[in-house]
């Protein structure tokens, strides 16, 4: 993404934002409340298209004007509210909008079989008691697992996770971070939106900081202290100068 800007009336939510996401890489997007993180995610997913700027995918310019455009490129997202239908069962939620079978009769057997083949459903030690129970009866960790399984159903190339560990316990969080590492090892690009810098330091390769709708630094996680990241998030350190990353992820000024 280059020079991405987004306005809401007189409010400029994003100003000339740049962001690079690569296959097999976890990039954490961090910033204080109101920094523009949610707006940037909406731009990437087509929920709120950018007013200005260029988005490239596989080296070619693309326009993401609606969610279907993002899905067609292989971009999937799991939002903090999970967007699950509580009255549907696990299988129904995983295949919501992508049901198998005809218009009148769904292939429930094939959908349940496909759901059981998704290894993510066993990855967080939240084994589901029954794939046919309503999602409303599941724990927070189990619901998170269902939402991620739905996102991975279409075998995306980029997975956006919005505060994924907010509702998880300590053990489940550790297992979820292991899952992110496995997804990275599969070659997926992962954009992790999080306020938890412990999670960021545990799994992210790079950190992109937003402050008041602008870039305020790209950092390599292994070589950057948590204090430096917090300083950029709060605006105590001003890194909002012209910058870009080279192919190895370094900041050039």
Automatic annotation (TrEMBL):
The keyword Transferase does not apply. Pfam families: ABC_tran. The keyword Cytoplasm does not apply. InterPro entries: AAA+_ATPase (IPR003593), ABC_carbohydrate_import_ATPase (IPR050107), ABC_transporter-like_ATP-bd (IPR003439), P-loop_NTPase (IPR027417). Keywords: ATP-binding, Nucleotide-binding. GO terms for molecular function: ATP binding. Residues 1-237 form the ABC transporter domain. It comes from the Bacteria. Coiled coil: none annotated. PANTHER family: CARBOHYDRATE TRANSPORT ATP-BINDING PROTEIN MG119-RELATED, SUGAR ABC TRANSPORTER ATP-BINDING PROTEIN. This is Sugar ABC transporter ATP-binding protein. It comes from Streptomyces spongiicola.
């Amino acid at each position: 993404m280059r020079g991405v800007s987004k306005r809401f009336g007189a409010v400029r939510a994003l100003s000339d934002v740049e962001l690079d996401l690569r296959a097999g890489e976890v990039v954490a997007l961090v910033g204080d409340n109101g920094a523009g993180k949610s707006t940037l995610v909406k731009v990437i997913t087509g929920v709120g298209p950018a007013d200005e700027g260029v988005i490239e995918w596989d080296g070619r310019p693309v326009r993401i004007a609606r969610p279907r455009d993002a899905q067609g490129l292989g971009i999937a997202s799991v939002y903090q509210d999970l967007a699950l239908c509580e009255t549907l069962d696990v299988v129904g939620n995983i295949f919501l909008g992508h049901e198998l079978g005809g218009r009148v009769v769904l292939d429930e057997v094939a959908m349940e079989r496909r759901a059981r083949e998704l290894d993510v459903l066993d990855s967080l030690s939240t084994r589901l008691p029954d794939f046919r129970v309503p999602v409303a009866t599941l724990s927070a960790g189990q619901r998170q697992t269902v939402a991620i399984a739905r996102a991975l159903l279409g075998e995306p190339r980029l997975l956006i996770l919005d505060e994924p560990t907010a509702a998880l316990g300590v053990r489940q969080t550790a297992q979820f971070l292991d899952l992110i590492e496995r997804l990275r090892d599969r070659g997926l690009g992962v954009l992790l939106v999080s306020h938890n810098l412990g999670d960021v330091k545990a799994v992210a390769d790079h950190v992109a900081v937003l402050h008041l709708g602008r870039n305020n630094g790209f950092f390599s996680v292994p070589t950057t202290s948590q204090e430096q990241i917090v300083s950029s998030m709060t605006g105590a350190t001003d890194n909002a100068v012209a910058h870009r990353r080279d192919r190895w992820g370094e900041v050039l000024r």
